[in-house]
User: Fold this.
Amino acid sequence: MSRTILIVDDDPTICSELQKELKRNFFPTFIAGNSKDALEILSKNKIDIILLDIFMPDIDGLDMLKKVKSKWPSVEVIIITGYSSQDKAIKALRRGAIDYLEKPINYEELNTSIGRAMEKITENADLTYRHTILLVDDDKNATKRLSRILTKEGYEVFTANNGKEGLEIINNNKIDILIADIEMPVMGGIELLERVKKFQKDIEVIMMTGFGDESLAIDALRKGAINYLRKPIDLDEVLIAIEQAVERIILYRNQLYRDRELKINSQIVSKINEELERRIEKRTLEINQVQSQLFQTSKLATLGEMAAGLAHELNQPLAGMSLCTTNMKKLKQRDLLSDTEIDETIENIEGLIKRMSKVIVHIRTFARQDLQKFKPTNVNESAENALNLMEEQLRLNDIELIRNFDLNIPQIIGEPYQIEQIVINALSNAKDALAQKEISDHNKLHVWRKKIEMKTSLVNQWACIDIIDNGIGMSKAVKEKIFEPFYTTKEVGKATGLGLSISYGIIESHKGRIDVSSEEGKGTTLSIKLPISTEGEDNEE
Assistant:
C-alpha cells in the first residue's frame, strides 16, 4: 500500500526537488509552504508521513510537531533541519518525531528515513491482540454455544461452571473480560466479581441475570461490573457489550504503558543529565572563550581588510580641516581674517571633528572584545553601517553598489554589531567573487560591470537582508561546505575561512536562517533572515 507524504517547507525549491524524488519512488505527495496550509491539508486528506522544516515563518517546527501529534498521533513526522541544528532535531525526536534530516538533504538518507517511518506505520497497523474471555455459567449447553460463537469472532475463550472454577482459571491465565451468571452453585457471580477486582484491576466484568434479578445486577454494577445482560442472552447485545469492554481495556492499558514509559524515560534522562551537567559545566567556559576569540579574530581580520576604506573615512575630514586652516592663514596674511570668517571656519572644523569622532567610536565599539547585548535593532541601520565601512573598499575595486532598502521593516531583537559583522563578511565575499570573475573574464570581449546589490525586505515574519553579486558563483560542492569552519577557496594567507562559519553561528543565536543560492559564472545571492518577534521560540520543558 502506497503511503501519502506531506512536505512542509517555506522554500519552494526544496519542496519542488523533494516532490520530484518522492514521485520517482511512487509516493503521492502534498506540498505546504507554511504550517497553516499544512494543517488544512491534514484535516482534508489521509496523510501518513510529514517532512517538516524545523524553522517555519508562522508556527515554529516544534510547535507544529506538537499540534500534529496531538490531533493525528498515527502520522509519522520526519524533521528537516539546517546545519548545526541537531539540538532542535533531538528535541523533536523526544517530542514524537521518528527521524531528522540535515540540509542539504541526502536522498539516500531521505529514503532510509521514510523506510523507517513506513515500517513503524506497518507495525502499528498489523499489530493485533487476541483478547481473552472467561464464561462462567452453570448452564453447560448455553456456555458451549456462546463459546463457539465468540471463538469464531476472534476471541480466546475459557469456560467454567461455577465461581470457584472461574476463580482458578483467572489465577492461572490472563483474562481480559469476565462474563458471569449471578446465580450459581458453590460461588455466585457477585462474589467472584468482588474477589477478582481485589487483585486484577484491568479485568472488565459483564454479569448475566435471570428474570427478576435486576436488584442483584445493579449491586454488581456498583461493585465494578460495566454491564449486565438478561437471559435468554441476545447475541448482538453480547457482542456490543464485549466491544465496549475491549475499548475500556485498550484505553486503560495504553495509559498504563504511557505512564510507565514516561517514568522509565524520565529516569534515564535524569541519569544522563547528571553526567552531562558535570561535563557541560566544565566545557561551557572553554567553549565560550573559544567562540569569543574566534569572533574577535574575525572582526579584527575584517578591520584589517577594510583599512583602505577606514583611511578614506578619516582622510576626507582631515583634508577638509587642512583646507580650513590653509584658508585662515592666507586671510590672516592679507589682513582679511574677520570674526565671521573665524566663526565659520571653527564651525566647519567642529563638524569635521564630529564626523571623525563618529567613525572612530563606531570602529572602537565594533572591534571591542566584550559581548554585546540583544536589544531592539533596526536592520536597515546595521546594513547601512556595514556599507559605510565597506563602501570605499568597493569603490576602489570599481564595484557598482546598489541600495534597495525597505524602510518599513519593524525592529528585531538582536545585536546590531553582530548583524553588521554578518553583512560585512557577505560584502567582502561578494567583492572577492567579483575580483575572481574579473580575472577569469580578462581576455573576453563582452562588456561586464561588477555589481553588488543590497536589498532589505519584510517576508512573512522575517526581516531579510539579501546581498546579490554577479561574480564567479559557486559549484554545488563548494556551496555545501561554505559554512564549515576554516573552509575557504582563496589562496593560503588571504583568508581565515571563519567569516561564513561565524556568520552562521550569529544567525543561529538570533533564531534566524541563512540561505545561499548560486550558479557558476552567474553570481551568488546570500539571504539573511531574522525573526521579527520572538513568538514561537521553543520553550524548555
About this structure: The first strand starts at residue 5 and ends at 8. Residues 132-252 form a domain with the Rossmann fold fold (CATH 3.40.50.2300).
